[in-house]
Amino acid sequence: MFCLSELEDTVRVHPSNLGSPLEDAIKTELKELFLDKVLSIGLCVSIYDIKSVQGGFVLPGDGAPTYKVRFRIVVFRPFVGEVIAAKFKESDSNGLRLTLGFFEDVYVPAPLIPTPNRCEPDPYNRNQMRWVWKYGDDEFIIDDSCQIKFRVENISYPPVPIERAEDAKPFAPMVVTGTIDDDGLGPVSWWEACAPISDNDED
Amino acid sequence: MKNIIVKANAGALTNFEVLDLLNSRGASKDTTRANDKVSGSEYKVYDYLMETAASTQTRETVTKFFDKCKDFKLAKAEILNVINLRPTSDVELTPIIEKPDEREIDIDGILALVQELLPPLPSLEAPKENEQEETEDGEQEETDDAEKEETEDAEQS
């Protein structure tokens, strides 16, 4: 889910921060610049460490020194084929939306929900649709009762839109598309009936 | 815009390693969250990770598991998945491992190894154990500090 990435950037440290040790001042600037932002490599979660700092020159007309910093960050970038446990957020006629707490744009489109299934208006929540999987004689509901495991199919970084409709969803710079159409995927409660490996008899 | 990325992938991290990093900065479960070294968005990642298998793992168990996994001919990405998810049954392992029969992968062996080496998943509710944290430092964690305080406890072997 996470990996390290090495970056190099020029960082301008405001003079008011120069009272603290240089490394801390640079880390504060880096945090403001990168934390919780989506780069082309993924969502930046944390600054890992600083590898080297060079420069410190003050450009003419400026009061602050500028450093060339090489550092590493922890990036959230799941790989295709990774299985991740997430929570249910909402669903509509296009599919499901799951959330990881720190990342909320995981979508499971309708074709990737196990078939045969049907979509019905949610009796508990008038604005939402509810997905139900029909397997044999049993029906399994997809809701927020437990964690939902999904497998990553694709990650896309849609370009920033220039114009949008007033009521469109907030722009998501990184979208993870997942599937729950396989053994062991989907709500965890669906598979709890399968006995874990042990010496006891299966129920 | 200049390209600032030197190396897009300088190494994959298990959930445990990220949790360890946040812990070393001082993230904790207390709700005041007054720590200025860990920001709000990092705390969201921390909350997520504390509910996964990573919260009960230690560096030794993860390294040991990784070493032993080499005998099972798994791809690195699959080992990462197994460490992060800690599967307990065949059906949980199926979406992780591709074509196990063609590659002759010993599914039961992997599950047995998981059971043996990786600590069990955290229980989502532990109200009574939290009350004891005032006197002893969290019986769930195995740190050296806790061992120093428990000098009078009989060796239960």
UniProtKB/TrEMBL annotation, chain A:
Its main location: nucleus. The keyword Cytoplasm does not apply. GO terms for cellular component: RNA polymerase III complex. The keyword Nucleus applies. Pfam families: RNA_pol_Rbc25, SHS2_Rpb7-N. GO terms for biological process: transcription initiation at RNA polymerase III promoter. Belongs to the eukaryotic RPB7/RPC8 RNA polymerase subunit family. This is DNA-directed RNA polymerase subunit. The gene is LOC130502418.
UniProtKB/TrEMBL annotation, chain B:
Residues 131-157 have a biased composition (Acidic residues). GO terms for biological process: transcription initiation at RNA polymerase III promoter. Residues 5-124 form the RNA polymerase Rpb4/RPC9 core domain. The keyword Transcription applies. Keywords: DNA-directed RNA polymerase, Nucleus, Transcription. It comes from the Eukaryota. InterPro entries: HRDC-like_sf, RNA_pol_Rpb4/RPC9_core, Rpb4/RPC9, Rpb4/RPC9_sf, RPC9. Pfam families: RNA_pol_Rpb4. Its main location: nucleus. GO terms for molecular function: nucleotide binding. Gene3D superfamilies: 1.20.1250.40. Residues 121-157 are annotated as: Disordered. GO terms for cellular component: RNA polymerase III complex. It is found in: Nucleus. Belongs to the eukaryotic RPC9 RNA polymerase subunit family. This is DNA-directed RNA polymerase III subunit RPC9. The lineage of its organism: Eukaryota, Viridiplantae, Streptophyta, Embryophyta, Tracheophyta. The gene is LOC108829034.
